[in-house]
Automatic annotation (TrEMBL):
Residues 1-28 form the signal peptide. SUPFAM superfamilies: Bacterial exopeptidase dimerisation domain, Zn-dependent exopeptidases. It is found in: Endoplasmic reticulum. It comes from Digitaria exilis. This is allantoate deiminase. Keywords: Endoplasmic reticulum, Hydrolase, Manganese, Metal-binding, Purine metabolism, Signal. It is an enzyme of class 3 (hydrolase). One of its GO terms (biological process) is purine nucleobase metabolic process. InterPro entries: Amidase_Cbmase (IPR010158), ArgE/DapE_CS (IPR001261), Bact_exopeptidase_dim_dom (IPR036264), Peptidase_M20 (IPR002933), Peptidase_M20_dimer (IPR011650). Residues 263-374 form the Peptidase M20 dimerisation domain. Transmembrane segments: none annotated. It catalyses: allantoate + H2O + 2 H(+) = (S)-2-ureidoglycine + NH4(+) + CO2. The keyword Lipid metabolism does not apply. Homodimer.
């Protein structure tokens, strides 16, 4: 549940060191805040509020209503709602003056191609799929803000002046809800999606290949390989995303830039015991996988809260600094039992494990240590256990030069917004959540902008972003695109030429 509007944000400040936030403060100026409320940035002053705020917010709400669920938001890979959303997003891209198409993995593309341009493209994107019972901003904000930014350039006559191709991509799958494998869309564009993905099935037994065929895609390895972009044709990828954490709210900044994305490992733990009658099997004779699983969940929690107390000496626990361990988080998000009856001792229990850390060595060590502890605890309880590795991704650093450009764009945007003092501060954050930028980093250099969200709440209908923060994100993209894809300024020979250039 998101905190009420009367709850102060100061309670979040002690969390900042733990979240590995680097904040560059050149002065104490910045934000007009009063009481416990987050400030609104009112007015327009030629800052394209009608498109970047009002229309964008309306479109976020419209896309949020396109759902496979009744009374909640759910939109998974190539579901009926996803197909309906595709048509809507294409119409918005065309409205911004972009050429559109859908590739063989269901990704939606909208591109502006300057005449006779040989420069590498700037890609901007995020994902159109959602978790179950989702909020309306996760993924969608990045897509719609990018479309709105290009629409502003179109209506102001600046789009045709760009010398570099700019393309918006709405990725078909990032969350991995349906097929339990993330980045189907962006991995296809990056060229890292394996052919074997076609045979992965969802809980109903339907494969990725089946779903593609049902939606009139070719569904072949060749077709998927054709989705891949040539690295030489792409200069960079940028993603705008809600922070999904409380840091920007605590700092009272609408925007921040991302230094890097945490590495992630997903495991499935399967515990087999002896199924039996709940009333007739004595406690001392039971091989109960549920109790063993409960102990393993608590063991994981302790391992990630106090790693140095459980790590073995040969795992070099002493080499980890407090800073490297600070971003470590571990989660059991799903637990299933068989046969799942109140009067039956389960025969099998399986659960998922999600381990994330900024430091890859920390993450790998925790995975190894937990796997060892699983076998030890299961031996003690006379049950059989195995650990399956489902997904692993290394930490992804963002490109320093791209990050600096995004930082300048964010700072100049906040300075220009009505009601804000000149912004000399920029928040630089690490992301604990995975993003399409992780997959796209295999193709090109990446950068990210985070947008403040209420209470840090995400993957929930309680997700909330202030309208003016949506505005700020769109305006930052406009500023960034203009500096990244606009014509190079002429070389100034002397002060007189400089004055002439300044008047242009």
């Amino acid at each position: 549940m998101a905190p009420s509007s009367s709850r102060p944000t100061s309670h979040l400040l002690p969390l900042l060191p733990t979240l590995l936030v680097s904040v560059l403060l050149a002065s104490a100026a910045g934000g007009n805040w009063s009481g416990n409320e987050l400030p609104e940035l009112g007015g327009d002053d030629g800052l394209h509020r009608e498109i970047l705020r009002d229309e964008t917010v309306l479109r976020l709400a419209e896309l949020g209503k396109i759902s496979d669920g009744e009374g909640y938001l759910e939109r998974t890979f190539l579901s009926p709602a996803s197909i309906r959303a595709t048509a809507v997003i294409i119409s918005w891209m065309k409205d911004a003056g972009l050429t559109t198409w859908v590739d063989q993995m269901g990704n939606i593309h909208g591109r502006f191609e300057p005449a006779n341009s040989t420069k590498e493209a700037l890609l901007i994107g995020s994902h159109m799929d959602t978790v179950i019972d989702a909020g309306i901003y996760d993924g969608s904000l990045g897509i719609i803000c990018a479309i709105s930014a290009l629409k502003v350039l179109k209506v102001t006559g600046k789009l045709q002046r760009l010398t570099r191709p700019v393309e918006v991509i709405a990725f078909s799958d990032e969350e991995g809800v349906r097929f339990q494998t993330t980045f189907l869309g962006s991995a296809a564009v990056a060229g890292t999606l394996p052919e074997s993905i076609l045979q992965v099935s969802d809980k109903s037994g339907t494969t990725v290949q089946d779903v593609l065929k049902m939606n009139s895609f070719e569904a072949t390895a060749t077709a998927i390989s054709q989705t891949r972009y040539n690295p030489e044709s792409v200069g960079s990828y940028v993603e705008v995303h809600i922070e999904q954490g409380p840091v920007l709210e605590a700092l009272r900044y609408p925007l921040g830039v991302v230094k890097g994305i945490a590495g992630q490992t997903r495991l499935k733990v399967i515990v087999d015991g002896s199924q039996g009658h709940a009333g007739t099997v004595p406690m001392k004779l039971r091989r109960d996988p549920m109790v063993a699983a409960a102990e393993l969940v608590v063991t994981l929690e302790r391992l990630c809260k106090e790693p140095n107390k459980l790590l073995a000496y040969d795992e070099e626990c002493s080499c980890f600094t407090e800073e490297s361990l600070a971003g470590l988080v571990c989660t059991v998000g799903e637990l299933l039992t068989w046969p799942s009856a109140s009067n039956v001792i389960p025969g099998q229990v399986n659960f998922t494990v999600d381990i994330r850390a900024m430091d890859d060595k920390v993450r790998e060590t925790i995975v190894t240590s937990f796997s060892r502890l699983v076998l030890q605890r299961c031996d003690d309880r006379l049950v059989d256990c195995r650990v399956e590795h489902k997904h692993s991704a290394p930490a992804t650093p963002c490109d320093p030069e791209l990050t600096s450009q995004l930082k300048r764009a964010a700072r100049s945007t906040v300075s220009a917004m009505p009601g804000r003092a000149a912004a000399a501060e920029t928040a630089v954050l690490m992301s604990g959540a995975g993003h399409d930028a992780m997959a796209m980093a295999k193709l090109t250099k990446v950068g990210m902008v985070f947008v403040r969200c209420r209470g840090g709440v995400s993957h929930s209908p309680e997700e909330s972003v202030m309208d003016d923060d949506v505005w700020a994100a769109g305006l930052a993209l406009v500023n960034f695109i203009e500096q990244a894809a606009a014509p190079e300024p002429p070389v100034v020979a002397d002060e007189q030429d400089a004055a002439a250039v300044a008047e242009l």
